[in-house]
Write a structure and sequence with these properties.
Helices cover 28% and strands 29% of the residues of chain A. Chain A has helices at 34-42, 77-89, 121-127, 131-145, 168-174, 221-228, 240-254, 259-266, 271-274, 279-291, 338-342; strands at residues 16-25, 31-32, 52-57, 67-73, 90-97, 111-119, 150-154, 159-164, 181-182, 184-192, 205-207, 210-216, 301-307, 310-315, 324-328, 331-335, 350-352, 360-363, 367-369. In chain A, strands 8-3-10-1-16-15-17 form a seven-stranded antiparallel β-sheet. A six-stranded antiparallel β-sheet of chain A has the order 11-12-13-14-18-19, with helices on one face. Chain B has an eight-stranded parallel β-sheet. By secondary structure, chain B is an alpha/beta fold. Chain B folds into two domains: 12-98, 2-Layer Sandwich (Alpha-Beta Plaits); 130-146 and 159-475, Aldolase class I (TIM Barrel). The chains are: A alpha+beta, B alpha/beta. The interface between A and B is large, with 50 and 40 residues.
């Protein structure tokens, strides 16, 4: 019997609609994954069971100085090769299968492993790279080496991504997220217009401690992709989320821009707006648009970017995707729909919809909202 | 056959409807080639078909529409191998011992890849954008973009751009056409149109007429191998300086402006004696290698205190990607690539029709190479050589160009009918001539307006197509290969262009 080959994510480009949600405790309080699951579950109709996932920050305090690699093995025979590669480049402090719950809603699960690692000193020194760049390059290596049979889908410190091809609430329960406690959570429910063949294509997408959940379909995709690929990134999944993650990583880690400046690049104001600004702001935006012209993002999107110590909410320059943010005490919320926030926190101090292209950034201990 | 005699029937035939003809003699007065004449004895207009170049001037101006010009129906014996053109040209050369000359781009039927690419549009998953209701940005900056982000002492981003840039309202510029090859009025039309459109025109290698310094910020001044009209003030006058290494219509050879086109004004502007042929050498004799090019780039930058971007223009030849990469590393700000279908005021036909490669594949190869080497932001890429319409512009930008040059298209807007006789100095439309009586047929007041109309119309169409793709800023289109699909192309062509075939979804 022959079966039809369903193309894997990365062999085809799959546009998706989505639901996203995020919770962030500015005071560092940690909560388990229960509320974020309920929040994303409310927006059930915004996904279609073909992808869901979560990212939690502050969830591995006992290994907070180690990079936590989460790896899918679609074919168990690639596990040894991958582990050999990891051992060649890193010291492994701990490793094991990620615990999951068997449930009928989740099928075709790959082997899912976790490794807490640090770069081998000698290898790192001879690479002449900084630790993060070294780790990122090794992650790219694994993800392009094994024909997608082994995929690193999380690689940050003290954070982790959990995802699968299913409705997000089922994914959350499958991974038993009520057993993890983090100061920040993001969630994603996916509505792809095509059938993604594997779990690596689900979201959040993550590189080092950046994780992105995204709703939209960017029309600048290939212009952005071809630009970041000049700087060593490999867009192997062909998703918007992947390229947005790399753009943020490139702008902040390699170009040294702040997150706020990076947002001004990807969701730059229109020239007609810039022309009306006072001189220094006009020069600032003109500079960013000229210098990083290929990293402007077009088309509808709203994203929640999780990073170590903060959370960023950003929408496209025409506001073609819904996004609501709210505050209650020192907790910050963001979601595709207000109801997804109200469900888990009925009383709110402030609820608002950010303007087109406006970034809202929440950070540990102090809050900075960009006007 | 006797030496010196040409036994050839004319290429064109004048067909006159004598019932309609009112003997007004407009055709006679309008034809610089002296085709038409009036015979009083029989009260009839006569035509000397042999002199006709089919420029359509008489047809257009005949008040009773009594004229048409058709291909002469006389034929040599049919032969698919030795066709009419080949035989004719052979006879002409056997007769004269000369090189076949032609003007404008090649008329031969080579593939036009623009016509084998289709543009995407949004449906459902991503909304299209209506340019009548939403901002739609076509503003383009040409120049180096590779500046490293720096912060001042106050921690704020340094927003000063180190490299000079050209700013364009729409990524279309008028290609290099020299004063001398085209008329004063044609130059005035181009300069005024560029100023009104917020784009640039290009002086070509003929220097800049003193009257046009006022349009300097919309002018690209060219430095070619003959160095005609080049001096300090000239270099400082423009928005950018272009070093012309090659031209798509005649890769590997220089230019030749016949002495009959060098009148007092052209002579002064080019800084050459009146009536002398202006022959620019095939190479720049101070550039025999890439490191020599670097020296000229920096000489020009020094001469202009690093205030002007330097463009290096090359023709699209087989090794264009590697050459462009070398140029990107030579200090140039912009590389301009001219495809082999590009126009010219005069070129040997053999070279025009057989040397070089199509601009579409040259562009894709250059863009890909610069990206592979991580230096795409070192230079902007401008292309030219047969851009026919706004959809060609959209396809060029999506394929990776920052902007396009239009030459032939702009001349058509001024009235050119592509008779391919520019080198004869008898342009009946007042464009490619220096004859005072002919020049004044091109009124720059309407010439410039027609150019403004053309580019404005294209801009509208570009904005509509961008909006359809869900793109509202030209930079999101640039190099966006997923917005293109090939039709009727083989795998190798698709691979070189870097695009998928129609029907492939990826």
């Amino acid at each position: 019997m022959t079966s039809r080959h369903i193309p894997l994510e990365g062999e085809i480009r799959i546009p998706s609609g989505c639901a996203i949600s995020g919770i962030f405790h500015k005071d560092g309080t940690r909560e388990n994954g229960e509320r974020i699951i309920r929040s994303i579950e409310l927006m059930h109709d915004r996904s279609n069971g073909l992808g869901g996932g979560f990212a939690g920050y502050g969830i591995y305090p006992e290994y907070k100085d180690y990079y936590a690699l989460h790896v899918f093995y679609l074919d168990a025979s690639f596990q040894r090769e991958t582990e050999d590669f990891i051992k060649e480049h890193f010291e492994i402090a701990n490793q094991g299968e990620i615990k999951t719950r068997k449930m009928p809603e989740i099928t075709n699960a790959p082997q899912i492993w976790r490794y807490f690692i640090l770069p081998l000193k000698t290898k790192l020194d001879s690479s002449e790279l900084d630790e993060r760049e070294y780790t990122a390059r090794c992650v790219f290596s694994i993800n392009t080496k094994f024909d997608k049979k082994a995929a690193v889908f999380s690689s940050g410190k003290n954070m982790g991504v959990f995802k699968a091809n299913a409705f997000p609430e089922d994914v959350g329960r499958f991974y038993m997220l009520d057993d993890y406690e983090g100061y920040a959570w993001t969630a994603h429910g996916r509505y792809p217009t095509n059938t993604p063949g594997w779990w690596g294509g689900a979201h959040p997408f993550s590189l080092l401690d950046y994780s992105i959940v995204h709703n939209g379909e960017i029309s600048s995709y290939d212009a952005n992709r071809r630009n970041v690929e000049m700087f060593g990134y490999k867009c192997s999944l062909m998703t918007d989320t992947e390229v947005i993650t790399y753009i943020f990583d490139y702008l902040t880690r390699k170009e040294g821009l702040t997150l706020e400046e990076a947002c001004d690049v990807v969701s730059a104001p229109f020239w007609s707006t810039i022309n009306l600004m006072p001189k220094d702001k006009r020069e600032y935006y003109t500079y960013l648009r000229k210098r990083y012209h290929a990293l402007l993002i077009n088309g509808p999107f709203s994203v929640i970017l999780g990073f170590a110590g903060g959370m960023l909410v950003l929408g496209d320059r025409l506001k073609l995707r819904s996004m609501v943010v709210a505050e209650h005490g020192s907790t910050f919320y963001g979601a595709s729909e207000e109801s997804a926030i109200r469900l888990i926190q009925p009383e709110l101090d402030r609820v608002w919809a950010p303007d087109a292209g406006e970034a809202v950034i929440a950070r540990l201990e102090e809050r900075s909202v960009r006007a | 056959m006797e030496q010196g005699k040409i036994y050839l029937s004319p290429e064109h035939e004048i067909v006159r409807d004598n019932d309609k003809c009112i003997r007004c003699q407009v055709c006679e007065r309008q034809c610089a080639n002296k085709v038409h004449s009036y015979d009083e004895s029989i009260d009839k207009m006569l035509a000397n078909d042999e002199n006709c170049v089919n420029c359509q001037r008489c047809v257009s101006l005949c008040p009773t529409r009594a004229l048409k010009i058709r291909r002469c129906e006389n034929r040599f014996r049919e032969n698919n191998n030795w066709n009419e053109t080949k035989i004719r040209e052979l006879y002409l050369q056997a007769n004269s011992g000369g090189v076949m000359l032609g003007a404008m781009g090649t008329p031969l039927d080579y593939p036009t890849y623009w016509d084998h690419m289709l543009i995407n549009a949004s449906q459902v998953t991503n909304p299209s954008i209506d340019p009548l209701r939403e901002p739609m940005e076509t503003r383009t900056f040409l120049g180096k973009k590779n500046q490293k982000a720096e912060r001042g002492a106050d921690g704020r981003l340094v927003t000063r751009f180190n490299s000079p840039q050209i700013e364009l309202d729409v990524p279309v510029m008028f290609s290099a056409m020299s004063y001398g090859s085209i008329s004063y009025n044609a130059h005035e039309s181009l300069a005024r149109a560029a100023a009104e459109l917020g784009i640039c025109y290009n002086t070509g290698e003929g220097g800049l007429h003193e009257d046009f310094y006022q349009y300097g910020s919309n002018t690209i001044v060219q430095v070619a191998s003959g160095r005609f009209g080049v001096h300090g003030e000239y270099l400082m006058a423009g928005a950018a300086i272009e070093i012309k290494m090659g031209q798509g219509a005649k890769p590997g050879i220089g230019g030749h402006l016949p002495g009959r086109k060098v009148g007092p004004d052209v002579s002064r502007t080019r800084m050459i004696p009146e009536g002398s042929d202006a022959i620019s050498p095939a190479p720049h004799h101070d550039i025999y290698s890439i490191e020599d090019l670097r020296q000229l780039v920096y000489s020009l930058k020094e001469a202009t205190a690093y205030t002007k971007p330097v463009i290096v223009k090359i023709s699209a030849v087989h090794n264009v990607a590697a050459i462009a990469s070398g140029i990107a590393r030579s200090g140039a700000d912009i590389v301009a690539i001219d495809g082999f279908k590009g126009g010219t005021g005069a070129a040997p036909s053999r070279i025009r029709d057989n040397v070089g490669i199509p601009i579409e594949v040259a562009l894709a190869a250059v863009d890909a190479r610069l990206r592979e080497e991580g230096i795409r932001d070192e230079v902007s890429v401008v292309i030219g050589g047969s851009i026919h319409s706004s959809s060609d512009v959209v396809k060029a930008i999506a394929l990776g160009a920052d902007a396009v040059y239009i030459g032939t298209a702009s001349l058509l807007a001024l009235g050119c009918h592509l008779c391919r006789s520019c080198h004869l100095n008898k342009c009946n439309w007042g464009i490619a001539t220096q004859e005072p009586d002919l020049i004044k047929r091109l009124n720059p007041d309407w010439g410039y307006k027609r150019l403004v109309n053309l580019v404005s119309a294209w801009k509208h169409e570009i904005m509509e197509m961008m909006g359809g793709m869900g793109i509202n800023s030209i930079e999101a289109l640039r190099g966006n290969h997923l917005m293109l699909r090939g039709v009727g192309l083989n795998e190798k062509e698709l691979e070189i262009l870097g695009i998928k075939h129609a029907g492939e979804s990826i």
